[in-house]
Design brief:
- By secondary structure, this protein is α+β, with helices and mostly antiparallel strands.
- Helix content is 21%, strand content 36%.
- The protein contains six helices and nine strands, in the order βαβαβββαααββββα.
- Strands 1, 2, 3, 4, 5, 6, 7, 8 and 9 form a nine-stranded antiparallel beta sheet that branches.
């Protein structure tokens, strides 16, 4: 579980912040990754939802691909409760992904993985389906300790128009959603609270890991 704050900044400010980070004692170079998220929700708008700007309580599911590696896809659930964010995830093979897209859900019903069972209920009862595909480049910097991160996203693109064959394709045609020479800057900090507080706000404590490559 963690808090986050977001801002859209110009390239000049991004470069100043990167320069400051590089001078820090605990600086570690950040790898830039290409992220694709397939959201099971047509209402997602990256700059107000996927980045969590002024969000109310919500829950959404997506399937994520990093650097076009189709053999290691990630099913992710993001929950926001009273300003606190938690994410849980599990890995999917490309075959499992294709089964989900083809409407074959029964294999998840009795899974040992809680997230897969929850996703099965969302697909069958709430009838959620892929709604929008979002791509962006991401850099994640660890700050003073493992509980603080600075994240920069750029080249944000999305589309509502896709087919099964283009969902994982880098050739998918998308529209730009961020002004040129701008970045979305996100500060993330892990939240630490007694277990009883987690229960009161409806998020289980075991999901309290802040995993930079998955955020």
């Amino acid at each position: 579980m963690y808090y986050e704050e977001n801002n859209v900044i110009p390239e000049e400010e991004y470069e100043r912040i990167i320069d400051t980070l590089q001078k820090g004692k605990n600086y570690k170079p950040a790898r830039t990754s290409v992220i694709r998220k397939i959201f099971f929700n047509r209402e997602i708008n990256y700059l107000t939802d996927a980045v969590s700007v002024n969000q109310e309580n919500s829950e959404n599911y997506c399937i994520m691909m990093t650097d076009w590696e189709t053999g290691r896809l990630v099913l992710e659930r993001k929950c926001i409760r009273e300003g606190l964010i938690s994410k849980s995830h599990t890995y999917l093979s490309e075959e499992q992904f294709e089964m989900i897209i083809d409407g074959e859900y029964e294999w998840m019903k009795q899974s040992r993985d809680t997230l897969l069972r929850d996703f099965y209920l969302q697909l069958t009862i709430n009838q959620i389906r892929p709604g929008v595909v979002v791509d962006y480049y991401r850099q994640s910097f660890r700050m003073n300790n493992r509980k603080e991160y600075m994240v920069f996203d750029s080249s944000i693109r999305s589309t509502y128009l896709f087919t099964k064959d283009t969902l994982l394709s880098p050739l998918l045609d998308q529209s730009e959603r961020l002004e040129p020479h701008h970045y979305v800057m996100t500060y993330k900090k892990a939240a630490e609270m007694p277990e009883v507080i987690y229960r009161l706000i409806g998020i289980s404590q075991p999901a309290q890991k802040l995993i930079p490559e998955l955020t």
